[in-house]
């Protein structure tokens, strides 16, 4: 923040500088000796939050100078400073009466009073900035991007907005201006989960994110938790990219980068118990669930002695893609068609829910080199007793690989609903034991129970 002081007495500059340094350390005070210098500073060193004019100034008429300032930069708080006589003679009454941003300060200076008047001007400017930054946007031209994306960067190449109403938005991040991680956290604390970008800018943002995540994951010696957090950010980008662009070579390569990072965890240090223990549980939203499901499936697969690279790729791709086309992310809690929450959705959304597996399966077919992830995706809502959907397959009809994924998927969904503590995991598995201790489900269930038991 900057304040401008126009005064031809340089001793007075120092007096105000000391006050600002002591009491308004975030405001930089710029001093000008005459009106022309002030206008130049306003035009070239701005923006200024407030302006102070010392009314004894010989080169200019304070009222005319104030009008020139308003014309040049719009309404800003102006404080006319002077002796009672100077204020009376040189400040036009109508300037004070018609503007709620103009004030007068009668000399001599008294620190506490002076601080108060500065405070009033700063608050006025901040309120005004807020009002001015609320803009009307055409919703059709803007797309939401999850707030989590913005943790990847230090500056946004585009303006990003918070939605206030369906038509009113406020700028949260300015193009090319550095922001801090705590700024993003503060936005998150207000319950805001998405920022809005212009449609044309979304693809560029996602491509930048892909490059950034790929670079991070290529580093050696990263901690498990950081690798997992980066993978979650990666899967989030995969989901958004798929929905807005579709399958491209860039996306296929990127999915391979994430898959490899995931595989390395088991190859180097981690067991299934380590994964359950170190996973950066936050909201267990779609992206978090996808990464966790991939890792649990792989842990179960390894536990059963399956070592095929292709099996691993199928399970991982299925984990990343299976729920990407849910019309509402909250639907990840819905595990069967009789679920009461389903009734709160429109007919179109219910239809999309019923078809989300089919649509994701079709997309999975487009990834060359990973065949048959599609049937795992299509069967992820089937259940051991045949009460699932869409085909009502039971334990004897489901393949071993599908059974691993159904078990994993339902286990993670329950953690998302009830929390990821050891106690919850144990009780969730206890309840699942009644239905899943059959057919191909038996062995992975046993391995999962053992991994949870070893959590300590
Ligand atoms: Fe699903």
Explain what the structure shows.
There is one protein chain. By secondary structure, the protein is α/β, with parallel strands linked by helices. It has three domains: 2-132, Rossmann fold; 137-202, no CATH class; 219-453, Hypothetical protein af1432 (Orthogonal Bundle), CATH 1.10.3210.10. 55% of the residues lie in helices and 11% in strands. The chain is built from 18 helices and ten strands. The protein has a five-stranded parallel beta sheet with strand order 2-1-3-4-5, sandwiched between helices. The two termini are 53 Å apart. The model has no long low-confidence stretch (mean pLDDT 89). The site of fe (ii) ion (FE2) has 5 residues, from loops.
Task: Provide a quick synopsis of the model.
With 456 residues, the protein is an alpha/beta fold. The protein has 18 helices and ten strands.
CATH topology call of the largest domain: Hypothetical protein af1432
How many domains is the backbone divided into? 3
Give Rg in angstroms.
Answer: 31 Å
How are the strands ordered across the major sheet?
Answer: 2-1-3-4-5
Which ligands does the model contain, each kind named once?
fe (ii) ion
Proportion of beta-strand residues: 5-15%
How many β strands by DSSP?
A: 10
